[in-house]
Amino acid sequence: MKIIRRKAIIIESSLKEIPKTPIALKYSKKLYEFCIQNAEIYIQTRMNDPDLEKEMKLGFEKFLKCLDAYLDFYDKKLSEHEEIDIKFHIYSGVTLKYGAKMCANNKFHKRPIFSNIAVEMNPDEIFEYTSDNGVCFAQVLLITEIIMNYEEPMHLALVQWYDFKSSVNPYLYECPLLEKTNIFNLIEIEAINDIIHIIPRFNIDNEFLVNKFLF
């Protein structure tokens, strides 16, 4: 699976027939706020927090590198913005455009919850990726709003991608058989199709099934 850049993510087209009613994004509780000038120190402090779950620590670890890659796609190097006021808001959750609640929360009713999601890929590039009928899967590690001078706010999720465990036998019990990769990206929240249910296989390391029979 190649590194998925922003061009590989598409927002649902208004021309596509959609059975649900879109709604505006609505964030849940704001967990953290920091600016570009102290980002490295702040992130290191969060990563040293013993109460932080491994998923959120991993999200913070990858945050600046993913942000640099995301801005680089627009020919905006992160280093060029160090003198500009850039603020980062990290949220515990957000309501997606069709009403589903996406979470990246260290403590939700005293338990961690990091949503798994389905993302529809660009049809022009679909053959570059292994997908389930044009859909790829990821786990959300951080939910962020990035506010920059003279720019519209960016509403992004930092995700860790899944890939098919095998290209020979990609399905088990008619469900996609996946593994977690070491590929991380910031993607637009509006590009996310829906929340999905992914379950780990018992006593098998890094092997997961997409539960297509839940709904």
TrEMBL record:
Superkingdom in the source lineage: Eukaryota
Name of the protein described by the UniProt record: Uncharacterized protein
Native source species: Diversispora epigaea
